[in-house]
Amino acid sequence: MKSPDKSAAAHDATTDAAIARKAALIALDWGTTSLRAYLFDAAGKVIATRMSTAGIMNLPVPAEAGGFDAAFDEACGVWLGEAPALPVLAAGMVGSAQGWVQAPYVETPASAQALVAGIVRVRAACGVDVAVVPGVLEPGALPNVMRGEETQIFGALAATGDEAVPQTALIGLPGTHAKWVVVEGERIARFYTFMTGEIYAALCAHTILGRTMKHPAEPDTAAYLRGVSVAREQGCVGLLATAFSSRTLGLTGQLAADEQPDYLSGLVIGHELAGLEAALARRDVSLAGCAPQLIGAEALCERYRLALGAFGCGAHLVRHATEHGLWRIAMQAGLVAPR
Amino acid sequence: MKSPDKSAAAHDATTDAAIARKAALIALDWGTTSLRAYLFDAAGKVIATRMSTAGIMNLPVPAEAGGFDAAFDEACGVWLGEAPALPVLAAGMVGSAQGWVQAPYVETPASAQALVAGIVRVRAACGVDVAVVPGVLEPGALPNVMRGEETQIFGALAATGDEAVPQTALIGLPGTHAKWVVVEGERIARFYTFMTGEIYAALCAHTILGRTMKHPAEPDTAAYLRGVSVAREQGCVGLLATAFSSRTLGLTGQLAADEQPDYLSGLVIGHELAGLEAALARRDVSLAGCAPQLIGAEALCERYRLALGAFGCGAHLVRHATEHGLWRIAMQAGLVAPR
């Protein structure tokens, strides 16, 4: 009798094979620190996923030694072994200058069709062509770039029912480099990048602010909203000044050590939203009058939803934007047949 | 015949002794990363200095093992050996909770007399009393603290002749945690802290922005002023957004790798000044109408002077503020007789 491990593995292989026979598309969200592979059926439903840490800056085998092929085979090899003719689409930093093949930016205003027209293909060592979606560039005095978010945006725009997004929309994508995207007439018209996640991490790990912090067992919503409120009121004096209060309020006994992490989080997110509000106001758009959609990790989007509430703004989380976006672009590119 | 090294050392020891006999005061600027000791004559002129890296966070011997005494002896032992009755005054982080003795903050509005009243003494192992100057706290919803800068401020206020500072004044102290201090009626009335130096260093060393930078052979004034200008125009969208342009302008070929360090420097200093301008405006004070004094390292103060020019503001560097401040406080505290 086979050992339980071998039985389980054999069972998984059988299951994978059965699933792969129903598939119509493989699509990859291939970023800097992780790779997520989706298997879709012909109706655009995700029937399997595989996730690894093989982001482009984290390949187990160096790129020069075939690292992209190795990561691709590890993620998709079983599916392609069963269904070698499956089309493959990839979006994210895999199309950057440090990626598998460079898919040059498409400029704003960027439609889904423009993205499709900008797709670049790379032939994997196993013989499969991988279609790579380009990022978007907004040129100008202060240019902006995105890579991966464009796919999520068109996924959010394609949603039907409760999650449908109006065709002129403000969409927020919280993260290491948070993006705020203005969509007009189904095109990415302009966008802003806030280095909020990366700067928060640097403040905690590499400045005096982290030295008095203790990490709480649970996130402290009251401390978080206090930080948002300070940023909102002191928006124009700026983060360089308000950040210091995370320390001084501790020195004066007005903010406990285990409140400081969430207070500082509220401060930086509050400054981001104050900056967004100011940027929109320059174009006579009121943030409080918007109903933004949020795409991203659920806990982080919830933080943003709370903070937006303090700015008079009701936001909704959009789920599965990545999958919907990959499917939509695959359809528009003719990789799969529309139903 | 003695070796040249031994002759030189013997000569220095003789010179030190001769100098010490003319001295009236030892005063220490004892901060986090360095210690500077000044020897004054009875007219308040600095006749010798000694500098070491034995800041309170950098003591060669741990504090618990007598590190403060060891650093003090190393800095001042020769002088005290010759003139053991010399009074000793110290200002800076040496009076903080992590220092040799805690000299509790004096609250704003803070006069020189209030500082003197707040002096705390610590007895060194060698039997000498060291008088430690307190820092200043501005209480409130967003409190602020300084320790060491108060001494420099009163040094600048005490200056005569060309460097005299009006009794209602705005004084800037660039640095890791830049301070902007409003003096009214010879009291420190209120002040602001901007974490500009520390955050700039963290952005360069610990975010994506540093990865495309090359350090130029000479500072690039044009790139610096470009950054100041961007911050001035985009003040309210904030540093979280504008910082990203150091990278994106590189990606689009609009900013060379060896321009990025000074561009980002101009950006952060520009945001600091935009924040200061906004804070002053809330109290109906126009930054452009001020003639601020700058105290600090010369090259850094020069950067600030240039940036202030872009804000319509003419600034002057004040020299020797630390020494003048230590002498003034020593006189006011009765450690030395006035002349």
Automatic annotation (TrEMBL), chains A, B:
Keywords (A to Z) from UniProt: Kinase, Transferase
Gene Ontology MF, one: kinase activity
Keyword Transferase part of the UniProt annotation: yes
Protein name according to UniProt: 2-keto-3-deoxygalactonate kinase
Organism, as annotated: Paraburkholderia unamae
